[in-house]
UniProtKB/TrEMBL annotation:
Keyword Ribonucleoprotein in record: no
Protein name as annotated: Calponin-homology (CH) domain-containing protein
Native organism: Nematostella vectensis
Family annotation (CDD domains): CH_PARV_rpt2
GO BP of this protein: actin cytoskeleton organization; cell adhesion
Protein origin, superkingdom: Eukaryota
An example molecular function term from Gene Ontology annotations: actin binding
Chain segments annotated as transmembrane: 47-67
Cellular component GO terms held in the UniProt record: cytoskeleton
Keyword Transmembrane helix: yes
Stretches assigned to the Calponin-homology (CH) domain: 16-122
Family, as annotated: Belongs to the parvin family.
Assigned keywords, A-Z: Actin-binding, Cell adhesion, Cytoplasm, Cytoskeleton, Membrane, Repeat, Transmembrane, Transmembrane helix
Subcellular location: Cytoplasm, Cytoskeleton
């Protein structure tokens, strides 16, 4: 890793044990909608929290008719996650994660996205 990436990763590793633990970062923002994440690897698999979180961080609202707020099938989850990943890429976020991995509740892929969000928006209160 390049020096700035090492420093950024070190700061994130420190944050894992401090106040800025990823769940705290997520809950700080989702709390504005009275939502709380208790389990990162299971609550993001349908894309809904990613859509809400990005809207809060970027300052926009995704109309509720644009996604499935309570997805009932894997296809609806896939559409939500695809929308969330597209919105993140459009906002300039750089990460590597596949829609299928998020839907399958792969913690590593989910944390990659949360880490990318944290890196870009850690300064927001």
């Amino acid at each position: 890793m390049a020096e700035p990436e090492v420093q950024a990763f070190f700061l994130f590793a420190q944050a894992l044990t401090a106040e800025l633990y990823p769940r705290s970062f997520v809950n700080r923002h989702l709390g504005k909608l009275s939502l709380e994440v208790t389990d990162i690897d299971t609550q993001f698999h349908d894309g809904v929290f990613f859509i809400f979180l990005l809207g809060l961080l970027e300052g926009f609202f995704v109309p509720l008719y644009q996604f499935h707020t309570i997805p009932k099938s894997d296809d609806e989850k896939r559409q939500n996650v695809d929308l969330a990943l597209d919105l993140m890429r459009d906002s300039g976020l750089k990460f590597y994660a596949k829609t299928e991995d998020i839907i399958k509740r792969d913690l590593k892929s989910t944390l990659r996205i949360v880490y990318s969000l944290f890196q870009k928006y850690k300064h927001l209160k």
